[in-house]
Amino acid sequence: MKTILHKAESRGHANHGWLDSHHTFSFANYYNPERVHFGMLRVLNDDRVAAGQGFGEHPHDNMEIISIPLSGDLEHKDSMGNHGIITTGEIQVMSAGTGIFHSEYNKNKDKEVRFLQIWVFPDKKNVTPRYDQISLAEIAKTNELYQILSPNQDDQGVWIHQQAWFHLGDLSAGWEGKYDLKDNKNGVYFFVIEGDVTISGQKLNRRDGLGISETGSVEIKADSQAKLLVMEIPM
Q1: What residues form DSSP beta bridges with 113?
Q2: The domain defined by 145-234 carries CATH number 2.60.120.10
């Protein structure tokens, strides 16, 4: 088993006033040659956008982009004609493929919006761009790792063009379990959204990340009430 630990305070940080962002991996003006990506996981940004502010229209191509709101409401517009609000308890996915333009704004004028922005390298290039967002309310469970993303259109959650599986866990203090990888050649990246957990003997706190590879199963314990994001991706 190989592990790589990314403590919350070791992340890259950029505060632009309207945007306060922490980067687990190299992004924009933050570059660390030892933290460019973890397998096919390219970006994990912990973003806070001020009231009424946001990302103006900008392009992407050949990337799978996932947004998970943590609080507040995010307004999305794109060149495919999609326009909607994504809020806590939902997940948004875009396959940029041959190219898209989009904007993301804080819908509210009186409070910030917080969300995780995640990029995954696709397993095929120049696909037709697509957009989707779903509510997790009907699939969310407590004290269980429930799937929110996969490579399969017919599976639970959203899907992307990559052999990747994401799970969320809303865990009570003292919960113990494990994550069994779909493919032993994959790696799994754990990100603690809230609380404290111990994974394979490594204690983790809020916003810490831990990448694990070369194993088929990982032991997990919640040391306090915790919210955990689990991302299995090819290495």
Answers
A1: 49
A2: yes
